[in-house]
């Protein structure tokens, strides 16, 4: 871990302090070797005064018990028909799992209690058939959960509900997590499963808006596992109804929870409602962060060194790219004595954030700013990024006379042998 990584982590600590997170575990995660690391991660979250509600599934345990007893299940995950035999077996499997889970939480000194906070009614007819003992969630008893949280007790919520007559109904744990998050005003839902989202999404699409997630499902629904589709659908509904962010994370990494929550890009898939990525004009308060960020690039001779005074003098030329409030890149558009052409300069993306398309976003932002200022051309002088800029629409040019006189004089005097690139801006 670098000091830069530590700064990014510390950036999140005050944001998360006192927040409520709903952590939803698939049953398969609890029975896996990954679970010991998840337990430690939960302990870390609670040590940071994050209020955690734990929701768990049990499909893996129900299927295993059904196979052991020779019971043909009508449904295992609480989304289809639940007949009486399946309900009885599910209650048994969930009860055993709950006891095991409480024992595990005790080993890491987490005080926990099971909460019967989910109220539902029979789902009725699903796809033309009576759903039996499958429930549709009516409401969450948020007061019970808040009471536990206020006493520093972690509420554990199983995938069972009760109707108005006290009958037990089987419910889907993904839906339970969504409803609890909405009832408590949670900042996040984190779905943890053995199915790593990286298997189903492009590495550069680890963050999706609610609309983008919908388009993804429309295009890929038939090719993805039902559990993954369920989580995307519940995430979309949660984000639409007020939960700022939902994360889907594979449990197989040792740092699954912490790696997702305390890094800018995360390691899983995030679906969001609020502004995750922001491109904005630089501010005076950004000066020290910009200088610190640029230091390594100056040492690598990627960009020219700028003093604090020089940055202040040209601050209005700079655009920064923020991820969750962290500046991870910048670019500048400098004007000279030629009203037709400006310079793209100081294009930089912080180490550890490459390969996410941020450089392309910054180049586009620079081009847009140049157009708004009335320039018809944008030039760049680069020693190491020429190939990248060419892919972004610039072309190599030998016409040094195209440079504004003051910039041409400086270029001819610094002997960096920088390559001149030009972009004729389309209106």
Question: How is this structure best described in words?
Answer:
The chain is of the alpha/beta class and 427 residues long. The protein folds into two domains: 3-274, Acetylglutamate kinase-like (Carbamate kinase, 3-Layer(aba) Sandwich), CATH 3.40.1160.10; 278-424, Aminopeptidase (3-Layer(aba) Sandwich). Helix content is 40%, strand content 24%. The protein has 15 helices and 21 strands. The protein has helices at 3-16, 27-30, 35-47, 59-69, 84-107, 142-150, 173-184, 210-220, 226-241, 256-261, 287-299, 308-313, 358-372, 386-391, 405-414; strands spanning 20-25, 51-56, 112-114, 118-122, 125-126, 129-130, 135-140, 154-157, 160-162, 168-170, 188-193, 207-209, 245-250, 269-272, 277-281, 318-323, 326-335, 341-349, 377-382, 395-396, 419-424. The strands form five sheets. An eight-stranded mixed sheet has the order 3-8-2-1-11-13-14-12, sandwiched between helices. Strand 16 and strand 17 form a beta hairpin. Helix 4 packs across helix 5 (84-107) and helix 8 packs antiparallel against helix 9. It is elongated and about 85 Å long. The model has no long low-confidence stretch (mean pLDDT 88).
The DSSP helix count reads 15
Number of domains: 2
The N- to C-terminal Cα distance equals 45 Å
CATH superfamily of the largest domain: Acetylglutamate kinase-like
Query: What structural class should be given to the helix and strand makeup?
Result: alpha/beta
CATH fold-level assignment of the largest domain: Carbamate kinase
Oligomeric state of the chains in view: single chain
Largest sheet: 8 strands, mixed
CATH first level of the largest domain: Alpha Beta
Count of beta strands: 21
**Rg from C-alpha positions?**
27 Å
Which spans have pLDDT < 50 for at least 5 consecutive residues? none
Strand order of the largest sheet: 3-8-2-1-11-13-14-12
At CATH's second level, what is the architecture of the largest domain?
3-Layer(aba) Sandwich
- Tell me the β content: 15-25%
